Amino acid sequence: MTPIDAKRPLQLNDNGQLRHFLSLDGLPRELLTEILDTADSFLEVGARAVKKVPLLRGKTVCNVFFENSTRTRTTFELAAKRLSADVITLNVSTSSTSKGETLTDTLRNLEAMAADMFVVRHADSGAAHFIAEHVCPDVAVINGGDGRHAHPTQGMLDMLTIRRHKGDFEKLSVAIVGDILHSRVARSNMLALKTLGCPDIRVIGPKTLLPVGLEQYGVSVYNDMNEGLRDVDVVIMLRLQRERMQGGRLPSEGEFYRLYGLTTQRMALAKPDAIVMHPGPINRGVEIESAVADSAQSVILNQVTYGIAIRMAVLSMSMSGQNAQRQLENEYAAEEQN
Amino acid sequence: MPIEVLGARLIDPASGRDEITNLYCRDGRIVAIGQAPADFAPAQSIDAQGLVAAPGLVDLSVALREPGYSRKGTIASETLAATAGGITSLCCPPQTRPVLDTAAVAELILDRARESGHAKVFPVGALTRDLAGEQLSELVALRDAGCVAFGNGLANITSNRNLSRALEYAATFDLTIIIHSQDSDLAEGGLAHEGPSATFLGLAGIPETAETIALARNLLLVEQAGVRAHFTQLTTARAAQMIAEAQARGLPVTADVAMYQLILTDEALHGFSSLYHVQPPLRSAADREGLRQAVKSGVISSISSHHQPHEIDAKQAPFGETEPGISSAEILLPLAMTLVEDGLLDLPTLLARLSSGPAAALRLPVGQLGVGAPADIVLFDPHSSTLAGETWYSKGRNCPFIGHCLPGSVRYTIVDGRVSYRA
Fold it and tell me: Do the chains contact at B318 and A126, CB–CB below 8 Å?
């Protein structure tokens, strides 16, 4: 028996355009490429003396962060401001939920303030889906990271970074290293790379940090870092959280660094022109050697710059898709009356 | 009120009877099958041609939510919902507030159930006080108040010593224990079966070993204590295999499975619908197949609804923050009929798993249609269908099957010789 509510394109409007941006699952290659192309055009805006375009003028974007964040929150704020939107940022972990207000109530209150768009980060996997489906379907919902599930704007900014530095995805080998199990970034990257046609996606880590069923992403799994890095074009390092030591998944930071830390020596196994990426914040000496993080091969700070352009692209595309959907629905209603 | 049921296909798995005949009920009991007794004057006559007359279904786990959670369900609403699903007898688990660990709570539940007058209720008492896994409840007092078995709900008794003693104490009085096997340490924080779907969705996994390790321990302690044990809500193929091995060794153990586990798998979680959030979790397709085969072979002798009604708010949150459980007692028969439709079971075998099987597991005086037995009967049309949700009596609408067209349609549910539900 198939569930009735399974697999409908919640994040697309009837014309197949984005109206929410929840995950990269189910998004076609053309759409991902459109996001990258749009972001490319916005990169130029960031380089101007006056860094604004009027695409979201008169619109209100609410950043609702139920979980701490600096980089993602700030770049979303900047992205919305560069699109001329009014921006409110709420760190909800410190306000209403501690007063017992539910997620639903918090968002409905914001909706009542005529917000046009929500950027949401939440510790629960599926939170963004829940909001888009059950709380405010008429407001464009952008997933700023939900639990271990997805961080689609990070995924896309990583793709923009790869495309700008390495070009065609169909010729690349990409390695993702570290705590795949707890990483929403890794999940979004695997999906994006697969959709964009990357033929060789590798994930590297010890079994305690690799979830079961990774085959579904079309990746090959390596437990040996040296083997996994051989001749890759791109190395994506993931942040290692301190809690992993207490849960018995790793003996110590030192042992992790010895086995999976990205050192200059290991980096030599990759292609000579390989790039190093990291979603940040980096732990120097835990997953990455300072010399590598600061090397010419590192594009970690470029990622941050590209992040603003990607977020501008996603915000503007989702807003226009949501508006188009409302127009379509009005037309349907008018037709029905006739 | 004397009732006659005429021309039904009577299927009684306990006796193996399967024929088109008449049933005569009086004073709450079946007084004759075939020919009416000489002095029989029916007050109600049911033309049951084309219908199946089977023992009313016996459901080993229907959460009634009272006392304590009446926003989710009441004894009146949930026992009525049960009769709509063909259920005439049900066991209610001890997770009430206060917990069903005193005779007073058992009496309150039984009183309200009698007042409501729908399905018969057999309470399951808490094995330990407040389900805390430490101090034993007064098991004999609870038995005397009407508890038919004892369990600890979903709360695993982590102390081997405490569980061992509880089982020995229960064995002293030949009480039946209902054991749910999930290692709380391995399942800690888990939301879904540890497998590709959980990985894809980023939901923390509950490995198969959470069930099998707890089951292995529980089987060893049950064997040592020599207690009658019923293993409830199996979810993995491996666990079903372990039960089969224990039965082959001669242990007096029985097992049940939730009806929805025989239909759904963890793939249903894609899309994050909280309707599929259950504990223990939906497992893999291979597990579902293993469970279905164990139901077919009889290793699993009972199918239960594991009915868990919830108010709307309990399911309105991101997946991990919702309360687990599915409300489905009132479509138990149509859901179970899918197993016949799929060709897994023939109708008499299915009815055995829904009536005589569960009744035997807990030694309940119901679940068969012999002369002299309680007149607990379900009359249903096996060739008709039920649109789930078209009517709905449970307070919990948390049911992923609502909107589905299911095979079979309950027409009458008769409890103690009285028509308790009529479609």
Answer: yes
pLDDT digits (tens, 9 = 90+) for B121-170: 999 999 999 999 999 999 999 999 999 999 999 888 999 999 999 999 99
Does A268 reside within a domain?
Answer: yes
> From the CB of residue A54, how many other CB atoms can be counted at a distance below 10 Å?
9
With vertex at residue B63, the alpha carbon angle to CA B232 and CA B405, rounded to the nearest 5 degrees, is 90
Give a yes or no: residue A294 inside a domain. Answer: yes
Q: Before B67, cis peptide (omega within 30)?
A: yes
The residue written with tokens 């569980």 in the block is B163
How long is chain B?
A: 423
- Cβ neighbours of residue B322 under 8 Å, at least 6 residues apart? B274, B277, B314, B315, B316
Residue B185 in contact with partner chain A when CB distance is under 8 A: no
Q: Under an 8 Å CB criterion, which residues of A touch B?
A: 1, 3-8, 10, 25, 102-104, 122, 124-127, 129-130, 134, 146-150, 184, 187, 211-216
Instruction: Please provide residue A271's backbone torsions phi and psi, each rounded to the nearest 5 degrees.
Output: -60, 150
Put simply, whether B320 touches A (Cβ < 8 Å) is yes
Tell me the CATH number at A192. Answer: 3.40.50.1370
Give yes or no: residues A159 and A288 share one domain.
Answer: yes
Residue B320 contacts residue B203 (beta carbons within 8 Å): yes
* Residue A23, in any domain of the structure: no
* Assembly ipTM: 0.93
Residue A7 is assigned to a structural domain of this protein: no
SS3 B232: strand
* B283 against A136, higher pLDDT: B283
Q: Strand ranges (DSSP E) for A123-260? A: 140-146, 173-177, 200-204, 220-222, 234-237
The alpha-carbon gap from A223 to the nearest alpha carbon of chain B, in Å, equals 18
Q: How many angstroms away from the CA of A220 is the closest CA of chain B? A: 15
**Does residue A218 sit in the same domain as residue A287?**
yes
Provide, as residue numbers in chain A, all residues whose Cβ is less than 8 Å from the Cβ of B273.
3, 5
pLDDT band at A98; cut points 50, 70, 90 = low
| Interval B331-351: pLDDT, tens | 999 999 999 999 999 999 999
Residue A94 and residue A116 in one domain? yes
* pLDDT value, residue A3: 46
pLDDT at residue B29, rounded to an integer: 97
Minimum CA–CA partner of A7 in chain B: B271
Domain count, chain A: 2
Q: Are residues A285 and A296 in the same domain?
A: yes
Start-to-end Cα distance in chain B: 20
Q: Could you read off the pLDDT of B60-103 as tens digits, one per residue?
A: 999 999 999 999 999 999 999 999 999 999 999 999 999 999 99
Tokens of B289: 């197949």
- Co-location of A210 and A333 in the same domain: no
Domain shared by A161 and A273, yes or no: yes
Q: Kindly state whether residues A192 and A94 are assigned to the same domain.
A: no
A142 and A243 belong to one structural domain: no
Q: Which residues of B touch A7 (CB under 8 A)?
A: 270-271
Residue-range definition of the domain harbouring residue A97: 29-150+305-337
Q: Angle at Cα B284 formed by Cα B283 and Cα B288, nearest 5°?
A: 80
pLDDT, average across residues A93-114: 74
Question: What percent of chain B clears pLDDT 90, i.e. is strictly above it?
Answer: 99
Q: Which domains does chain B have, with CATH numbers?
A: 3-52+374-393+401-422 (2.30.40.10), 56-361 (3.20.20.140)
Give the end-to-end CA distance of chain A in Å, rounded to a whole number. Answer: 39
**Do B200 and A103 lie within an 8 Å CB cutoff?**
no
CA distance B391 to B413: 15
Radius of gyration of chain A (CA): 20
A213 secondary structure, DSSP code: T
